[in-house]
Amino acid sequence: MVQLLYGLLLMLLIWSNAVSAHELRAGFLFLNEVREGQYSVLWKIPISDKDNSDVVPVFPDDCRAITPVTHEKEAAVLNRRYVIRCNLSLTNRNITIQSLKEAMLDVMVRVKYQNGSSESGRLTGERNQYKPSGAERLFDIAKSYMQLGIKHILLGFDHLLFVLSLLLFVEGFWRLLKTITAFTVAHSITLAAATLGYVVLPSGPIEIIIALSIVFMASEIARKHMRGHYETDLTERFPWFMVFMFGLVHGFGFAGALSESGLPDYALVPALLFFNIGIELGQIFFISGVILLNIAILNRVKMHTSLTSGRLVTAYGIGGISSFWLIEQVANSF
Q: In this structure, are 37 and 72 located in the same domain?
């Protein structure tokens, strides 16, 4: 039974490789009312292997573009800019993102009005229309960005594999709690610092180090369980310290995903706060699921060697996938 359970887990790891790390990419639609009935449009959509050319915002029939569409690439995002003019205000009228469900994207929408007020919302494949109300509520910001944070972590397979490797490596409840807390504190620090503009780093090296951190953890798990014992080194004695350092790097990865989704200037701190809360909630959901799976395994395993073999198989799966990611990220950097 234990081989079956760990085999299923390994299949999930292989599937995650097929989906690839950071599969969740969010588009961003920003409408700035420059004068009555006239809006500058910024449409940001992630660049991927899929053809997303038909994923576009559709405005009411009385709106038309009055400037040519300009295109520019920014990292892994394509920006389109143009100006539209509408006979009527967009307030209480539907704005639709075409083909959103097929593209499997979320879209953050932000509307800024002449009087300085703004509002924002989140669209999904199941809800691809946004109706500006002319007023923003803090609750809407909190809900949108918390949902985005939860979805990002649960579909951010590189971060999940790192957390999974911690659960396989660290033994003892309090040691594990301190280690997970160190990871949380670390990525919260750099997420805030990068989002608020205090620290700016290129995404390429960050993604390479994130993949390398997972390779490192997989090798540590394998070393520990292959020998039947583990030499007392820094990683074993102070796992929280090593995880804290890697957590700082993972925080920059979270910040990159958040910047692609766009942040409201008028509510930057609340949006950042609730995005981070969403990440923590998603992390708790994942850890709880792994712990329940582990309990199910322990209830069926009578031999320590079977459990060790299962952890080794999982470590090899994590190591193989993260090594592929590492090679892929290095290749993309040149």
A: yes
CB 160 within 8 A of CB 125: no
- Reduce the DSSP state of residue 27 to 3 states and report it: strand
Q: Does the CA dihedral 145-149-154-156 come out positive or negative?
A: positive
For residue 198, being part of any structural domain is answered with yes
Helix (H) or strand (E) holding 74: strand 70-74
Q: Tell me which amino acid residue 64 is.
A: R
Amino acid at 88: L
Q: Are 329 and 228 in contact (CB under 8 A)?
A: no
Distance CA(54)–CA(303), nearest Å, equals 55
Residues 309 and 164 in one domain: yes
Q: Give pLDDT, residue 4.
A: 42
Compute the distance between CA of residue 15 and CA of residue 61 in angstroms, rounded to an integer.
43
Can you read off the two tokens belonging to residue 200?
């700016």
| Residues 174 and 292 grouped into a single domain | yes
Note the pTM of the prediction, 2 decimals: 0.72
- Asked if residue 279 lies in contact with residue 149, where contact means CB atoms within 8 angstroms, the answer is yes
Report how many domains make up the chain.
2
Exposed, middle or buried, 159 (CB in 10 Å: 0-12/13-18/19+)? buried
Residue 144 lies inside a defined structural domain of this protein = no
Banded pLDDT at 49 (limits 50, 70, 90) = low
- Give the contacts of 39 (CB within 8 A, at least 6 positions apart): 31, 32, 33, 83, 84, 85, 86, 90
